[in-house]
Amino acid sequence: MINLSHELAANVITPRNRDSFKGTYGHVLIVGGNANLGGAVIMNAQAAVQSGAGLVTVATDLTNKTAIHARLPEVMVVDYQSDLTQTIKKADVVLVGSGLGEEIGVLNQVLAHIQPKQTLIIDGSALTMMAEQNLSLPNAKVVLTPHQMEWQRFGEVTIADQAREDANWEALINFKTEPILVLKSSATQVYLKDDMYQLTVGGPYQATGGMGDTLAGMVAGFAAQFQPLGPAVLAAVYCHSAIAEDLSKAAYVTLPSTIAAAIPAYMQRLAQESISKDPVDTKQEE
Ligand SMILES: NC(=O)C1=CN([C@@H]2O[C@H](COP(=O)(O)OP(=O)(O)OC[C@H]3O[C@@H](n4cnc5c(N)ncnc54)[C@H](O)[C@@H]3O)[C@@H](O)[C@H]2O)[C@@H](O)CC1
Ligand SMILES: Nc1ncnc2c1ncn2[C@@H]1O[C@H](COP(=O)(O)OP(=O)(O)O)[C@@H](O)[C@H]1O
Ligand SMILES: [Mg+2]
Question: What is the pTM assigned to this prediction?
Answer without folding.
Answer: 0.97
